[in-house]
Amino acid sequence: MGVTLLRSIFGLCAVSSSSRVTDSYCSTKSYLRRRRTSASKQRLTEIKSVTSTPPPPSRGIRRRRKNKDENVVHNPYSKMEMARPDLRKSLLDFLEEARDFVGDGGGPPRWFSPLECRAQAPNSPLLLFLPGIDGTGLGLIRHHKKLGEIFDIWCLHIPVSDRTPFKDLVKLIERTVKSENYRFPNRPIYLVGESIGACLALDVAARNPNVDLALILVNPATHVNNFMSKPLLGMLNVLPDGIPTLWEDVFGFKQGAPLTGILEALSNEFSVQRMGGVGGGMLRDLFAVSANLPTLSRMFSKDTLLWKLEMLKSAIASVNSHIYSVKAETLILPSGRDQWLLNEEDIVRYSRTLPNCIVRKLDDNGQFPLLEDSLDLATIIKLTCFYRRGKSHDYVSDYIKPTPFELQQLLDEHRLLMDAISPVMLSTLEDGLLLKERNIHMRGLTHPMVFMYIQDSLVDPKMFDKYKLMGGVPVSNMNFYKLLREKAHVLLYPGGVREALHRKGEEYKLFWPEQSEFVRVASKFGAKIVPFGVVGEDDIFNIVLDSNDQRNIPILKYLMEKATKDAGNLREGDESELGNQDCYIPGLVPKIPGRFYYYFGKPIDLAGKEKELKDKEKAQEVYLQAKSEVEQCIAYLKMKRECDPYRQLLPRMMYQASHGWSCEIPTFDL
Question: Region Disordered: what ranges (predicted)?
């Protein structure tokens, strides 16, 4: 699919509202962030011979000059290379705060709201956290800060000494859900449950099908592994009742004791030094657990564990009997390394039984994923488009922009590709169209298949994460209208799937619709159309098996037809070549990477032309002008790249070896 991403922007237009000067975020294509300039620093004068509307004289490639009087919104991405992991608490924080909860004197189950969650945005939905076997309600402690910015968070605390039956816990949660739904009938309520908490969430949803609920089930307890649980029960039955006191008296694990102090100091040292990697994290957590054994021994006392295991059995039985009554949309996050409470067959059954169910497997997580470094629940909610403030998810208004660290992670994932293709970015504008420097966040109109979750699909939905994180929106006339109404900057792909999944010999060929579909909508908002072209795909891959070839191979023909049916044809009924939107994975043979070239043409300003462009013929003229500009941009780049001495990988590597690996590599004279 990498070639699809790169090829799909040939014949692309960027459309932006003219009333929007700056935005607070960078472009979807911001990972192409390094500007490439000519060795001679000449102006772009040759463009006059290949573009129908030449750029103004003496305007070339240079960085934007800041105007002191200009009101520029702060750009949180301007220094994203230095972004640190988003501030989150650690396992040690969980254990230290759990110490107060374990010694709270008992009482009935009750709700609390963490102090870190005070800064939620207006109209944030309610999130009720239902704890796992620990019962403290602190299971989201690593996620409080980020989730607290987009949710109103309440956590359920079940004291260690409490023996409330499972069905009564369900009733307690149900009362809260009904009360909050009555107060805010248009606000969804999220139930985030871990292990036993997931069973509570499912039972509440089954009893309240008419309440707008969204379930996030982390490592849901679907069964009890008897191979592991029976020996545990046997061991618990023979343990003395005073096991917490034994830990303290025999081994010296008392709060304030010398041994405990040493272990706490080691754990803090590992946290302060931010020792990364699996080894550093494991040692840090090991010292944290060892220093807080008294807290753990009271949290999981013999009587409490026996009670929780019995409650777990009744919870699983109750859920299995009510699962078919659940109507809420559900996100299931099963751990890949949990063999005690999780059964993959049950997860598959849940995914096929529950309506609107998304399963996202946490391959590298274990028994308690919410307390592990590698899991960021807020990011997962973004990547699955599972956040909403109203009755249904709105891809335009419910979008949450990535944090600087999330964007930096995305850049790191593409670092090898960036270094391999060494992009050259050219613009005819005085301040360039370098979107990171311009402080603009682009929203790309994307094929709806990117947002689909299809059972038994050959394509892993995680491969589309980058598009969702960066604000992709399912392509439709309504979404295009809503984006421009919100003064967003929009990436438009007129050629769609047909152009992205082109066939042999169709490199750089545009497959635009015959009618001016987007021009008149853009004119309503006084938008600017920025045509641009990209070349370089043919220097990375050769297509050896296109859709025509795959139709002659029965198994590939079947897979292609199934994928096309699942994805849907947005151009169904179109008798032109654009209507042949086959969805398939092309057979590719990689090449030694060449270089990519981007050229942004002169904007077409539609401000004040709404009445004029109501005339279909006038709108068609502007449409054809935009298409011609894209073709001219591509033609110019194809011609000029032949003069680039660093088009091939080896010369670029030699240049970097002599000038430094972080240097900018020259290109052809302009």
Answer: 37-70
